[in-house]
Write a structure and sequence with these properties.
The complex is a heterodimer of chains A (322) and B (286). With 322 residues, chain A is mainly α. Chain A is built from 14 helices and 2 strands. In chain A, helix 6 runs antiparallel to helix 7. Chain B has 286 residues and is mainly α. Chain B has a single domain, classed as Orthogonal Bundle (MetI-like fold). The two termini of chain B are 26 Å apart. Classes of the chains: A mainly alpha (322), B mainly alpha (286). At the A-B interface, helix 1, helix 2, helix 7, helix 8 and helix 12 of A face helix 3, helix 4, helix 5, helix 7 and helix 9 of B.
Chain lengths: 322, 286
């Protein structure tokens, strides 16, 4: 077997171990509840009804059988139910509408972040050490630490309440009209993107500074090309790899921020579902959400890492000791 | 040169602010103030700088300055304990893994990776939600148990973050000549770790520890906003989450704790960054 295939298989194996262990731990969450799950989910039901529920969610099985049946359901897309006094609703149908919205929100946040960070990073790398660079770097450093919900709440106060330019709550699908959709998404997306802008600008700046020292940049300059042309045609591409890898890896990190931001703006995505599951103490649903996020996160990071190694072989051993 | 002076001033501001917040947290209870939940019913939701309320009040009549001072104690306490405990357990495991190598190392690393496979906020909220549940919604969980569950959950979140850093830093030292020399001279593994590895790993851990304090403060506030934090509204996060309901007519109620939280987190990040920069310089000279 060639070394590349072996390495990928090794990575896959590791990821599989992590996924199995993580889903096992998550499946144990409802087992570890200090109280009776059936009583929490159906507070007004009779004992007989609760017994049916226990059988349905497998609360009577031993942990390993329980895990296996839970995993089997999970893999087939049966994520359990949300229980009401009057009945229940499948988590899967909710996810089908919630997940695309969250992905859309994260996509918008990434687009805004890259659209701002690329020019800023190029500019401050080009003017490294000058005043413009120092102002950009210091300001962004402060922003990088500010949590997204703080940005979001400030935006609500200023743009939503004081200026009344944008709606502060809710979600509208694209089919309801482009502006209606965008106007509900701008503020949540902006809140998520501010921290990213800081990170991305920093990364791009460092790489631009390094690339500008390359011989081919001197070569391009001596050919008489304009600085703008050199920057965008010769410097940007070789400098952007770290940026795009980090952008891809940040998709996972965005999930945490997205949950709070969705709760703040009542954007009805996965994060908002997590929030309502917490409020309504829907532990079966919560369990599925956490498992979905974990599996997505692990697989996504794996793919990004491999893709980055494929595009730029220099990064292949980068994370060995990490 | 102006740059250097600017940086020094920024450094001082960060240290002073953190000192100020920690001082609030420590001496808060002895300050001659009313209790944070004293209701001033003559001044409901008044803005900052009005009638004896420096930062204003919320619609319950709670004074926001008192709230912030009291909140500093809980937020800082939770953050420091979680990072201290998580950092201790994490770095012990990480250093041990790096020193032992082989199977022990891969088991510990896998455990870290499993914990890290869930985004930290998601992990924290799952743990808090599960372990701080009562049968009856109306029958609230006692505050001390909530705080305990919160601290332990955040500790679990911190363990792999600092553990991985400790392992990576320790790996760089376990292969060094002086460690080899100590081993061949028959020094006990425990002594080698304590005298040769721990002191070298420590600075990196302290730098990341500051960042981790920021992470925990944000996580605590996020949990409060999601409704699973400390319930009776004593922490900064709880103040923010209560202020959210008044955002339409009294925006200062949410902005005041947000400001304190944001500045504190910026400062912990800044200080972590300063320490890391010094560290890079020091290592470069070796």
């Amino acid at each position: 077997m060639n070394p590349r295939a072996r390495r990928i298989l090794g990575r896959l194996g590791n990821a599989l171990i992590v996924v199995v262990a993580a889903t096992f731990a998550v499946s144990m969450l409802t087992r570890l509840l200090p109280v009776d799950l059936a009583q929490v989910l159906l507070p007004t039901a009779s004992d007989a009804e609760r017994e049916i529920l226990r059988a349905e969610i497998g609360a009577n099985k031993d942990p390993f059988t329980y895990y296996l049946t839970w995993l089997w359901d999970f893999v087939r897309g049966d994520f359990g139910k949300i229980y009401f006094a009057s009945g229940s609703e499948s988590v899967g149908t909710r996810l089908a509408s919630a997940v695309p919205r969250s992905l859309l929100l994260m996509l918008y946040a990434q687009v805004i972040a890259l659209a701002v960070a690329i020019p800023l990073g190029m500019w401050s790398g080009y003017r490294a050490g000058r005043r413009a660079d120092r102002v950009i770097s210091t300001t962004l450093f402060s922003f990088s630490a500010v949590p997204s919900f703080a940005v979001g709440l400030t935006l609500i106060v200023v743009i939503g309440v004081r200026l009344q330019w944008l709606p502060t709550l809710g979600y509208e699908p694209l089919s309801a009209g482009l502006w209606l959709h965008i106007s509900h998404m701008i503020m949540p997306a902006l809140s998520l993107s501010l921290g990213l802008i800081a990170t991305y600008t920093r990364l791009l700046r460092a790489d631009v500074v390094a690339t500008l020292r390359e011989d081919y940049v001197t070569m391009a300059a001596s050919k008489g090309l304009t600085n703008t042309r050199i920057l965008w045609r010769h410097v940007f591409r070789p400098s952007s790899l770290t940026l795009f890898t980090s952008a891809a890896l940040n998709m996972g990190a965005l999930i945490g921020g997205a949950i709070v931001v969705e709760a703040v703006f009542a954007t009805y995505g996965l994060g908002f579902e997590v929030y309502t599951a917490l409020q309504g103490r829907q532990f079966v649903a919560l369990q599925s959400y956490v498992a979905i996020i974990a599996v997505f996160y692990v697989l996504f990071n794996l793919v990004v890492d491999e893709a980055a190694g494929f595009v730029d072989p220099r990064t292949r051993n980068r994370r060995l000791n990490g | 040169m102006a740059d250097k002076r600017g940086r020094r001033i920024a450094e001082r501001i960060s240290y002073s602010w953190l000192g100020f917040v920690v001082a609030l947290a420590v001496v808060g209870p002895w300050l001659p103030f009313d209790a944070w939940n004293t209701v001033y019913d003559d001044a409901l939701a008044v803005g900052p700088f009005s009638g004896g309320h420096l930062l204003g009040t919320d619609s319950n009549g709670y004074d926001l300055l008192l709230g912030v001072v009291n909140g500093a104690r809980l937020s800082i306490l939770v953050a420091v304990i979680a990072v201290g405990l998580g950092g201790f357990i994490g770095s012990a495991l990480g250093i041990f893994a790096a020193y032992a190598r082989g199977r022990v190392d891969s088991v510990i690393t896998t455990v870290f990776n499993v914990i890290l496979s869930v985004p930290n906020l998601v992990l924290a909220l799952a743990l808090v939600a599960v372990f701080a549940t009562n049968i009856d919604v109306t029958d609230s969980v006692p505050t001390w148990r909530r705080v305990l569950v919160l601290i332990l959950s955040l500790t679990i979140v911190i363990i792999p973050i600092l553990g991985r850093i400790a392992r990576a830093a320790a790996l760089a030292w376990t292969g060094r000549e002086f460690v080899l020399a100590a081993q061949t001279m028959g020094m006990r593994a425990r002594n080698i770790i304590w005298t040769h590895i721990v002191p070298n790993v420590m600075p990196a851990l302290i730098a990341v520890g500051f960042l981790a304090v920021g992470v925990v403060i944000i996580a605590e506030a996020s949990l409060s906003i999601l409704g699973v934090g400390v319930p009776d509204g004593a922490s900064w996060g709880a103040m923010i989450s209560r202020g959210r309901n008044e955002i339409d007519y009294a925006p200062h109620v949410v902005l005041v704790p947000l400001f304190f939280l944001a500045v504190t987190v910026i400062c912990t990040n800044h200080v972590g960054d300063i320490i890391r920069a010094r560290l890079d310089k020091r290592q470069a000279r070796i």
